[in-house]
Design goal:
The chain is an alpha/beta fold and 330 residues long. It has twelve helices and twelve strands. The longest helix has 18 residues. The chain binds iron/sulfur cluster.
């Protein structure tokens, strides 16, 4: 399968008064063409920093890409200048942010914000861009798009603003769409509509999607593969079925035990993962989950486990229990 994005050994830090926060510590994952990949994990696990680094949107300084490659269609984005990234953002890679109100420009009409990319990246005339803006608003389900195109963000409801944001990010038919918690701020009905819309666009336009979320229900609904992050690292990855029905890492198991599952006939009560993630100012030497893991062993404190294949090459987990030499490994 053709890979549209490949992130290799990515390390991102933030230099603060307290010291260096190692937010992303050697992340590897890929996205195939037309595929939807979810990145899941608790707040502070590095998922949003990873996605913003792909777009080169982290403030540098205090942020710094210390090491690694972000290969987009084979081209390393880490080496691109700001000017070069400007022509990639919006055109080849689109982004939907969590909070549309802080991401939309309150001083510009929704129409002008959609038209901006069309005029800049696709050399459209103003009139043609406006016609396309109306079409895009219609595609994302905004009623009376020819009237709404002239309105400002404050005249849109929360759900409509999120749809407008999707229209902006899709204006130039990006090959990759990064959606960072796109439905968190919305009520469930609007949430379902937005997810349907994204699935539809993925099918029609062949867009690849990276979905950043902590909502496992949303993942099951629309993704092909899942990357689980913890303490700035990928600790498990696999297809949606592999992760949901056969999780291998104790953290992934804990995540799944802490949410209601309508697909499973089980009576067990929901169990939270006790404790908190490690401080990335002073990341642990060994496995980052040691302090919270009921299976922790001495080796876990001393050496960080690598990602190992489990049940085939699409499913990998970074846990000593999954090491090829571990006794009783299934
Ligand atoms: Fe638990 Fe050790 Fe596996 Fe980490 S490596 S998840 S501490 S068993």
């Amino acid at each position: 399968m053709e890979r549209i994005l490949e992130v290799k050994d990515l390390h991102v830090s933030f230099h603060t008064y307290a010291g260096e926060v190692q937010a992303v510590r050697g992340v590897n994952f890929h996205v195939n063409k037309g595929e939807a990949v979810a990145i899941v994990g608790e707040s502070g696990c590095g998922k949003s920093v990873t996605s913003q680094t792909i777009m080169k949107l982290i403030p540098m300084p205090p942020g710094e890409i210390k090491k690694g490659q972000i290969l987009f269609q084979g081209d390393d984005l880490v080496k691109k200048s700001n000017k070069e990234m400007e022509s990639i953002r919006g055109k080849d890679i689109g982004m939907i942010f969590q909070d549309p109100m802080t991401s939309l420009n309150p001083t510009m009409t929704i129409g002008n914000q959609i038209m901006e990319g069309l005029i800049k990246h696709q050399n459209m005339s103003k009139a043609a861009a406006k016609t396309r803006a109306v079409e895009l608003l219609e595609i994302v389900g905004i009623p009376q798009p020819d009237r709404r195109v002239n309105q400002y963000p404050h005249e849109f409801s929360g759900g409509m603003r999120q749809r407008a944001m999707i229209a902006i990010s899709l204006a130039c038919s990006p090959k990759l769409l990064i959606a960072d918690e796109p439905t968190t701020a919305l009520d469930v009905t609007i949430q379902a509509q937005i997810l349907d819309l994204m699935k539809d666009l993925q099918k029609k336009m062949g867009t690849s999607i990276i979905l950043i979320t902590h909502d496992l229900g949303v993942v099951a609904e629309m993704c092909d593969r899942v990357v689980v992050m913890y303490a700035g690292k990928v600790i498990e990855e696999g297809t949606v079925d592999e992760i949901f029905y056969n999780p291998q890492h104790p953290y992934t198991k804990g995540l799944l035990r802490s949410v209601p599952r309508l697909d499973l006939d089980r009576d067990e009560p929901l169990t939270p993962i006790f404790g908190t993630p490690p401080d990335l100012l002073r990341p642990p030497v060994g496995c980052g989950f040691t302090a919270r893991c009921e299976n922790a062993m001495r080796v876990c404190q001393e050496i960080d486990p690598e990602l190992n294949d489990v049940n085939g090459p699409s499913h990998r987990a970074a846990c000593w229990l999954q090491h090829p030499l571990a006794q009783g490994r299934s």
